[in-house]
Amino acid sequence: MVKPLDGIRVLDLSHVLAMPTCTMQLADLGAEVIKIEKPEIGDDSRYFGPFINGESAYFMSVNRNKKSLTLDLKQERGREIFKELVKFADVVTENYRPNTMKKLSLDYDNLKKINPKIIYASICCFGHYSIDQQSPGYDIIAQAIGGLMSITGYPDGPPTRVGSSVADIFSGTFATVGILAALRYRDITGEGQSIDISMVDSIFAVLENAVVRYTLTGEVASRIGSSHTSLAPYNAFKAKDGWVVIGIGNDSLWKKFCTAINKEELISHPLYLTNDKRSRNCKQLNEFITAWTKERPAKEIVELLSKDGVPVAEVNTIDKIINDPNIRLRNMLIEMNHPKAGKVKVANSPIRLSKISNDNIQPSPLLGEHTEEVLREILGFSPEEIEKLKMQKVI
Amino acid sequence: MVKPLDGIRVLDLSHVLAMPTCTMQLADLGAEVIKIEKPEIGDDSRYFGPFINGESAYFMSVNRNKKSLTLDLKQERGREIFKELVKFADVVTENYRPNTMKKLSLDYDNLKKINPKIIYASICCFGHYSIDQQSPGYDIIAQAIGGLMSITGYPDGPPTRVGSSVADIFSGTFATVGILAALRYRDITGEGQSIDISMVDSIFAVLENAVVRYTLTGEVASRIGSSHTSLAPYNAFKAKDGWVVIGIGNDSLWKKFCTAINKEELISHPLYLTNDKRSRNCKQLNEFITAWTKERPAKEIVELLSKDGVPVAEVNTIDKIINDPNIRLRNMLIEMNHPKAGKVKVANSPIRLSKISNDNIQPSPLLGEHTEEVLREILGFSPEEIEKLKMQKVI
Lengths: 395, 395
Description:
The structure is a homodimer. By secondary structure, chain A is α/β, with parallel strands linked by helices.
């Protein structure tokens, strides 16, 4: 089967989550991703739990379909080998702090001399072109600085980090878009280029209407829980055994909702007649709806309201969404057979193309699993050379 | 200047946020995006506030660099014109409910007969291939079903919708990756294909370690506020005038932190000696740190701790991040000159390629602004034909 990135080779110096998310997406699309790791140690995330037979499932979940080559870039010989590989590569990816690659003389300006067609993609907290280049790029730092935490949470509660590392995952996905665009640019012009993704930029770019609300009106968006600035009822409501969300986007849905809960008299209630009135009286409205929802199981509420076309959904806990029939039908949970850990289920790619299968995945590599293969097949190293490099701890 | 998507024409049937995010990214990269809108009405989001001179800034913020063609697809003549345009297009995008395009006979199976090279990308709530195809795709529904709300928020509080529409924005960005991959596949094989992005899949794919924690250990990840499952202190803390986040990833940073706040005696305190102990005693730890932070302005805390290399950041409110010097330096807030609204500032693309400028943007189009241009230049329609179509309200 043809894949879109067949024949594209990525030298992947990335670690933990942000750039590994990008290179996993590239590998899913058919690129040969060679993950370059510190000999004996490897990616930091190999030490993140949960573990199975001593192997990190965290690592497995973002490194499928990749190869692993150990290479010590702090040794001159390691850097030489890396530069040799660059001659046979299309893309280099990294998410160290901005000066790290420069200190090793492996930044874009140096590598483009070796291979002018190389595409060099970086992710860091503030961007390589920035005032404060050196701060570490923890996800929580970018979510905080980027403004997303200030608008996530409840008005009477603290600012809230999103429950998954969306600064990492957004910046990784934006890097993927950048690399695919740069490959196309290279097809047209024959030229490589560098890509500079900032985690703070990435969060800033997804603040949605909060940006124009400030630039136009000076209004500083704040935390409004799960509700909506201009629609009501539109919120999370407590059910007997969990939570549901109900989203009433217009007056016609309000009528359907009142009818479905057998409260037709509310349709023309002066406090709730229009969306504008419902928004202004949303406190009473939410209290009233909660009084109704909390007496009923979530499943029953969803069945009752969705039957009448009212937008409603259960707030799924993780076990529920993982066992959801539609997630299973769409093969969003995929099993890989790891040589040490055995069968492990991870989230599959959400990018579904009709002519490209997402069904066969290779497990994440063991540390250095492909070192010999890469050095032999790409650079033509002999077994003796490889043995010597092992002795010198270069690989 | 060459752009990666020069010469790529997108017929964009999308509305509101999810797919418009995708086509904005495509337009930023040089594609000709022709947004097709209902005559006289247009995209629903043209009616979302805030407004300036009657024009929606919400709409402006996700529709820059696009053209607008009005076309009534409910009329036979409108569908004919659309099909003519498909012959001259590379990509069709839409985010209606699954059956909408089929009812109009404008789904992939019909359009590929007209143009076998067409790439057809859809976003909907559950995916076109799904059990329950017809539910509406509100962002809050996908965040709820996908499990993200259940892990966002505080343990003693309700599940929490992320403060921006990340189900829309993730699914839009995944569609961009899919389209770029499909274009490359077409370059190799000459074949088009369809892309089926589900908003629920998109949220499921970004749940991060919560998925493997459940599949491996059965642990159901829940809400832990802004803290970390296995690191402490790593949280949001109240400052005198706002909030800060502090992220102590290891024992060496703990020493630096204690020294920076003049509490060296805590370094070897039996409750806090190792990360494991700090995690187990994080309640006392957080209380103690809050007692220290709440006496000081956020700015002072950030200066004091960052000087010593402790990962720290202010939780920026929207006004602060918009006026942040680094955001300004990186041109992340860009001004467009709208013909009716005047100068409006919106968030720029975070995808920064060294050879492609993000500095010149065209404002979002007025409804039907490019109708005549598109019909004349692509299909060769005469002024008389165009006049007739206007009379018939086809355009």
